[in-house]
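Lay summary. Proteins are chains of building blocks that fold into shapes, and those shapes determine what they do. In this project we predict the shape from the chain. Here is one chain we studied, written as its sequence of building blocks.
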Amino acid sequence: MYQSLTIVGNVGKDPEMRYTPTGQAVTSFSLATNRQYTGSNGEQVKETIWFRVSTWGKLAETCNLYVKKGSKVLVEGRLTADKATGGPRIWTKQDGSAGASFEVTANTVRFLSSRQEGGGEGGAHVDAGDLSVPAEDIPF
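And here is the predicted shape, written in a compact code that computers can read:
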């Protein structure tokens, strides 16, 4: 069995990088997708879904350098279920309503924003399988 997920959205806040006890880099950032449609009553409905993206190894180091709050990125990866619920991570917001985010482990991150829009070079991408090249040699 195989699953693949492709998401295009805006980064919600600057990424956070840490290292595992074995020295492996892990970078996490939040990604919002937006959808607007007309509801059955004729009113415009705005829907935002949040994803929590984790990247590993050289991909994590590259994302930590080039992904910024407001950047538009395309992420390809797989869903990671919450161990407690088997689904998305659920929490209570400050206003008392329920919130949820979906956890994604990324294999590829494509930077879609121009530098003026808060991201890296437009159209550049990094694939976890392509990272045999040192990060300083990546052309963006």
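What the prediction tells us: The beta strands are 5-11, 16-19, 25-38, 44-56, 72-80, 89-92, 98-111, 125-127.
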